[in-house]
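Quick check before the chapter quiz. The format below is the same one you will see on the exam, so make sure you can read both the input and the output lines.
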Amino acid sequence: MTEMSPLRRRKIDDMTIRNLSPATQRSYLHAVTKFSRYFGCSPDRLGLEDVRAFQVHLVSLT
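Here is the expected output.
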């Protein structure tokens, strides 16, 4: 099993504090994984313009 990154651990902790269901947490983590894979780097290296570019990409798929 691989070690969890500090960013992922923090995201899970934040979602737990907000009392999000396990299914919602999995969904959010899956979305962040797709976002990160699209750009080929860790999400902590991406910014607001990258979020916008990813949203444009998602809209183009429909």
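If your answer matched, good. Residues 6-60 form one domain.
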